[in-house]
Amino acid sequence: MTVHDVQISTLQGAPADLAQYQGKALLIVNVASRCGLTPQYAGLQKLSEAYADRGLVVLGVPCNQFGAQEPGTATEIEEFCQVNYGVTFPILEKVEVNGADRHPLYEILTATPDAEGEAGDIQWNFEKFVVAPDGRVAARLRPGVTPEAPELIAAVESALP
Asked: What is the spatial distance between Cα 57 and Cα 49, in angstroms, rounded to a whole number?
């Protein structure tokens, strides 16, 4: 099973067919609107704009598990992202990324180790996963790695189709 096989919904509740991204690189990020790392939305939008023509799709996945920093409704989340950061990349449904109710997407993602060789639970908001065009997870970058960081740029560029 790859990321492309996972069933998930859009922020508005419609099915989001991840299979449509086969052949593209993905950057999947668990996001929150009331976090100290929330300004990373700006860098994620810049990445989306800079690499979309080369086959990158950024996917935001809201999560309220860390300090209740994403309490909003789907409408509030969408409005926040657009008004404050001009987000045009897809935002998926709010899910749990850790624990017994972890979404199946994060079952796949969290099995991938980071640069230090550690797999398992998401540490905080804005943890990033680069997914290759074939659906395999190519890189995991922890929340402190900004969208502008050389290691994230390198991971994205190496995953581009």
From this structure: 9
- Mark the ranges of the chain whose per-residue pLDDT is less than 70: none
For the domain made up of 24-134, give the CATH fold.
Glutaredoxin (3.40.30)
Q: Which residue in the block uniquely carries the two structure tokens 């190496």?
A: 158
Q: Token pair of 69, please?
A: 């920093």
Query: Could you tell me the residue ranges of all domains in the chain?
Result: 24-134
- Catalytic residue flag (residue 35): yes
User: Would you say 159 and 130 are in contact if contact means Cβ atoms under 8 Å apart?
Assistant: yes
Q: Comparing C-alpha atoms, which of 3, 78, 77, 63 is closest to residue 30?
A: 63
Q: Would you state the pLDDT for residue 7? A: 95
Active-site position among 16, 32, 35, 130: 35
